[in-house]
Design brief:
CATH topology: Lipocalin
Shape: globular
Structural class: mainly beta
Oligomer: single chain
CATH architecture: Beta Barrel
Strand order of the largest sheet: 6-5-4-3-2-1-10-9-8-7
Helix content: under 10%
Protein name: Rho guanine nucleotide exchange factor
Pfam family, one: DUF1934
Order of helices and strands: EEEEEEEEEE
Largest sheet: 10 strands, antiparallel
Number of strands: 10
InterPro entries: Calycin, DUF1934
CATH class: Mainly Beta
């Protein structure tokens, strides 16, 4: 895998009424692997904000960590079969969130890395929704062709 990558992240949230809401972001980023751990770093521009939010995603077998610094600040830990709590800091105040992770997996090939995370989301100790994250990391020189296949 090259250092320059295109990162596609889909988040899917199923609320208590069985409706679902999908959010997707596609960014250019940097990828590297060190001592069996994968790293993806990219900047994200949020609506109405001039300063980018720096995102650092670190993953390995059964664990994914996400750090956001900027408009929002958070350090999220998704560990398979574990529940982790964290403060999600926004310009409007902090939110205590719980991440009860049931699955963290990834597949790696020469042309693509796919990461999947399944978790239950809690806000202030109350269940909010079941969620999924699907992440695709592809070399920039692929030009994003077949990005969502």
């Amino acid at each position: 895998m090259t250092k320059e990558v295109m990162v596609s992240i889909k988040g899917l949230q199923f609320d208590q009424s069985a409706d679902s809401e999908e959010i997707e972001t596609i960014q250019w980023g940097q990828y590297y692997k060190k001592n069996g751990t994968h790293y993806v770093i990219y900047d994200e521009l949020m609506e109405g904000c001039e300063e980018p939010t720096k995102n650092i995603i670190k993953f390995r077998e059964r664990e994914l960590n996400l750090t956001k610094r900027g408009l929002v600040n958070v350090y999220m830990v998704f560990e398979e079969n574990k529940k982790n709590m964290t403060n999600y800091l926004t310009p409007y105040g902090g939110i205590l969130i719980g991440l009860d992770t049931s699955k963290v997996s990834f597949t790696e090939s020469e042309k693509e890395i796919r990461v999947n995370v399944d978790y239950a989301l809690e806000v202030n100790y109350e269940y909010l929704a079941d969620c999924k994250i699907e992440m695709y990391i592809r070399p920039k020189d692929n030009g994003g062709i077949d990005l969502l296949s």
